[in-house]
## 1
Amino acid sequence: TYSNTGLTVKATALLTVALLEFSYTKPIREAKTMYKKWNNAWNNYKWVYNHHWIKKYPALNSSGSAVSGSGTGFALNSDGYIVTNYHVIDGATKIQVRGVSGDFNTKYDANIIVSDKNNDLAIIKVNKHLGSIPYKINSKTSEVATEVYALGFPLRASMGDELKFTKGDISSRSGFQGDITAYQHTIPIQPGNSGGPMFDNNGYLIGIINARHTGAENASYSIKSKY
C-alpha cells in the first residue's frame, strides 16, 4: 500500500530453494504523485519492479538441503553441560552430541544454554549424566614454550570417529593480531577440532581450540580457559 495515494498492488512471487523473485507494477496515479513535473508522460507507461533476493545463509549443498557440520566439545561438569565454539553451533537448527563415553551410535539432542560470539564460546546441554570429570581448569595464563596437547574429532569423514591426539607448544601468549584472549601455539588443527580442549603438560585444561592461521605454518589458536 502506497502512502501517497493509498493504492494497493499485488506482487507475483516465485520462491525457490535459494532465490526469491517477485515483481509488481506501480500504479500510474502513484507515479504521477511522485514525479509531478512528468505528469503527462505517464499516460501510456507501465512501471514494473523486479526484485531478486538470494538466500546466502545457511549454506546449501547440491541437493538443496541444509549443510550439516561437526565440531568438538568437552564436558564442563557431570550434569550434561558441554563447552564448544560459538562458530560450531552458530545458525544451527538442530544440535546433536555423539561419542559420550565413547558411544558413537547414540545421539543426544542438545540445547544452547549460553553463547558468546565475541569470545567464540558456547555452552550446550544434553539430558545425560556425563560421569566424573578427569581434569581441572587452570585459569592462569600459561607461559610461552609450555607443552600443550589437544583432543578432538577432525575431518571425521576421512579420519573416522576415533578421538585424535595432537601436541605442540605455546608460541605466544596472545592470538591473532595480538588478541589477548587467546594463545598462539603449534598444535596441528584441522576442521572439526574446533571446540576441543587444550591441556598443558600437567593435565590442566588451559584453552579451547578455535582457529588456525591459513597464511602461516604451525600457527593455531585457542581461547584461554579464563574466558
## 2
Amino acid sequence: MKKEILSWVKAIAIAFLLYVLCRQFIFTAKTVFGESMAPTFHNGDIVIVSKINQIHRSDLIVFNAPDSELEEVYIKRVIGVPGDSIEMKDDRLYINNEPVSEEYLIEEKQKASLGYFTEDFTLKDYTGKSKVPKGHFFVMGDNRPISKDSRIIGFIPEDHIIGEVVFQMYPFSDLGTPK
C-alpha cells in the first residue's frame, strides 16, 4: 500500500512539474477582456498562447501592456514588423506602400455607419517614426474604432510579448484556430 501511494505521489509531482514547465516556457491560457478585438474575440473568450512561435505580420499576440502599472495584458493583431512603413488611406491598409487585404474586417467595414472603419493615418502621425523600429511591433485591434492599440500606446517592444494566440478554447462554439 505504501509503495502504491508513493507511486501516485511521484506521478502527481511529475505531472505538476511538467505543467509548470510547459506553462512557463511553452504555452499559457489567457482570458480576453474588453471588445477591442471583436469580432475575432469577445470579452470572456479564453485563448491558448504559444510562447515559442516567432511573431509575423497578421499574427494575433498577447503582450504586457506598456502603459499599465498593473499586470494587464492586451491581445491585438500585428500590423507592422521591424522595418515596415504603415499607412491607412480610405479605409485601406498599406504596408511598405503595398495594399494589404484585411479579410477579417470585411463585415465590420460594411457595418460602419460613420463612413470609414479606420481613420486615415501614417505611422509618423502616431509615432513620429516612418518605420517600425528594430525589436518593436505596431499592433491594432480588430475593432478599430474603440481599440487601445499602437495608435495610442506606441510600438510594442519585443520583450513585452508573451506569445502568439494559437487556439481558442472558449466559448466552445468558437473552438479552434483563430483567423
## 3
Amino acid sequence: MLEFAESPWAIGILVLNAFGESIVWPVPPDPILIAIAAIRPKDALWIAALVTVASVSGAFVGHWLGLQVGRPILNKLFPQRHISKAEGLFQKYGVWAILVAAFTPIPYKVFTILAGVLHLDRKSLLVGSIVGRGARFMLQGSLIFVFGKEIESFLETNLEVISWTVGTAVIAVVILATLYYRFRFRAGPTS
C-alpha cells in the first residue's frame, strides 16, 4: 500500500475508487484515503474533499441507474403494494437512510441505487450524501492533518467503531436540531 500511496497515480485512482464505490465497486475508499493522506498529511483535507466530491458524484450515477433499470427488476420481485409502501417510507425517511449509509460501514451503493429505484428526490440524496460522506471522509482527513502519520494505524484498526460512533452522534445532533426547530417554529417566536 505504501508503494501505491506514493505513486503519481494514487490520488486519481483513489478518486475513481470513491466514485465507483458509490455505484458498484466493492472496495471502500477509506483505507486508500488513509494511506495516501498519511504520506501527505498537509494535503489530507483537500484529498478528503476530493474523495467526498467523487463519492457524492458516484451516488448520482447510482441513483440514475436505479431509475433506469431498478424499477423493472423490483416490479418482477415484489408486489406493487409492497413497493408503494417502501416508496412512501423512503420518500419520508430516505434522506436519513442515505445519511446513515453514507457515514457508516453499511453499503452506501445499495442505498444510492435504491434511492433511484424508489424515486427519492435528488436534493435529499445530495443533502444526505454531502453530510454523511463529507463527515466521514473529512473526519479522517482532519485527524491525519492534525496528528499526521502517527494516527494511521489507529484509524485503520478502529475505522468501523469510529464510523458507527461518530455516525450515531451526527444523526443524533441532526435529529435533535430538527426537533428543536420544529418545536420552536410551532411554539412561535419568543420575546
